[in-house]
């Protein structure tokens, strides 16, 4: 039961999209000129991304910021409302939405996703997040589940959603977390279900994605580790008679010269790093999330300043294109990129990097 997310998926090209423009983006930096989300700039950005031929956008789901002077993610547009609105005004680009399973009842999510899939004529995808942020759970008055149990809960949550979409008659669901009577739901998604992605890099997170999703969205810590992870995910999926692809993220700084790009990246991730916000985020993540090792936090503090831990790709257009080719060659199917200023930096990336990727055969031409 393979679902590809676009024509690029079928031809083995790298699918390329944006990550997190519905929020302040991935940076934890005080650098001037950084992205601040509004409806108008998001609308224009996603239309520009579609016109440039990008394949998708994945929004962040966040309910509170990380504090400090820049308060990263303090402004985050609701991913459901954001995606639904953009599906209505786009024609080709795939738009994921991101849903926190502990904060959203699966019947509500089933109807929202089915509605969005109708609006977008089959272009919606679901990025499933099981919730790691304890202060967010506190905001909802929900006790934070133990790490691996979160994925048990999400598994049953997803079962309910898929049942709503597959059943034409009222059904009962009796499980460990949900006891539901006489459940019905219409409309259904156009193709019966939507593309399912799970974000989470721990063993439990990975095995949930392998068993139940089409895509695993994970952090690229180091290229060799990523190659290994992709191979393991594909092999485990294969053994379970499934097909799962891996998406990952990258933070891009592309400038006419390598020197300019490196200097700007240093400025963003060191001189202007929002140390208070980074400390807060690392403390919150370190306690609740198993995606990163303690060594990663210590070694890659700068990566949090620029890209929330995502892999930095920094250089002139040739360097950036070459690095994206290397990422594609790790077996990664999709790369979700972010910039300090999405709208300001996308045109240069479109004009200088996308044609190089097409020439190199990393992406389809045109
Ligand atoms: C690429 C990526 C994107 C994520 N996006 C979100 C998000 O938008 N909102 C959120 O609350 N958690 C997000 N997460 C967190 C995961 O859903 C998960 O809770 C976290 O990685 C801890 O899971 P793990 O310990 O299994 O890795 C993301 C994680 C990754 C790796």
UniProtKB/TrEMBL annotation:
<keyword id="KW-0285">Flavoprotein</keyword>
<keyword id="KW-0288">FMN</keyword>
<dbReference type="InterPro" id="IPR011251">
    <property type="entry name" value="Luciferase-like_dom"/>
</dbReference>
<feature type="domain" description="Luciferase-like">
    <location>
        <begin position="31"/>
        <end position="333"/>
    </location>
</feature>
<dbReference type="InterPro" id="IPR050172">
    <property type="entry name" value="SsuD_RutA_monooxygenase"/>
</dbReference>
<dbReference type="Pfam" id="PF00296">
    <property type="entry name" value="Bac_luciferase"/>
</dbReference>
<dbReference type="GO" id="GO:0004497">
    <property type="term" value="F:monooxygenase activity"/>
</dbReference>
<dbReference type="GO" id="GO:0016705">
    <property type="term" value="F:oxidoreductase activity, acting on paired donors, with incorporation or reduction of molecular oxygen"/>
</dbReference>
<keyword id="KW-0503">Monooxygenase</keyword>
<protein>
    <recommendedName>
        <fullName>Luciferase-like domain-containing protein</fullName>
    </recommendedName>
</protein>
<dbReference type="InterPro" id="IPR036661">
    <property type="entry name" value="Luciferase-like_sf"/>
</dbReference>
<keyword id="KW-0560">Oxidoreductase</keyword>
